[in-house]
Amino acid sequence: MIRVHRGNFLYTLNSIRQSLFAYLESELARQGIHDIAPSHGDILYILDKKGSLHLHDITELSLKDKSTITAVISRLEKNGYVTRIRDSADKRLVNIQVTEKAKTIKPALARISEKMNSQLFEGLSAEEKTMLFNLMARVKHNAGKI
User: Which of 45, 72, 77, 144 is the most buried (most CB within 10 A)?
Assistant: First the structure.
């Protein structure tokens, strides 16, 4: 096991991310879901929770740049998970919303996420998790100042 310290903090975060993405890819494949990348989950989650949104809103909520969101939305649309609908009030704008296909995989995605989080925080008390989240929020805040 790697000892986490100041000198390898970014490496450690990246290692955690890689492990989680590998886990998600494996679990998605086990569920027969082969056309969604782990990095697309947050977009589907945002659309599921918020409903129909403009591209700009998805960009802000996901903290990803517009070109990345545009590419993800295009792939999700190609695979039948989202649809684009012209805004009735302003025809220049397009709303993005999840399709029935996306809604059908929601239970599987929720199970995968729940299992991942359960394993990720195994052995941590409620107080330790709260402390971890508070510390990560402070580190995130500080990173925004860099």
Answer: 72
pLDDT in tens, 31-74: 999 999 988 989 999 999 999 999 889 999 998 899 999 999 99
- Residues spanned by the domain of 43: 38-143
CATH number (domain holding residue 109): 1.10.10.10
* Rounded CA separation 101/77 (Å): 11
Q: What predicted TM-score, i.e. pTM, was given to this entire model?
A: 0.80
Query: Using alpha carbons only, how large is the chain's radius of gyration in Å?
Result: 18
Mean pLDDT computed over 93-115: 93
Q: Find where tokens 């890819």 sit.
A: 25
Q: The tokens of 102 are what?
A: 């996306």
The per-residue pLDDT for 1 is 62
| Distance from C-alpha of 32 to C-alpha of 45, rounded to nearest angstrom | 19
28 domain residue, yes or no = no
Number of domains in the chain: 1
20 within some domain: no
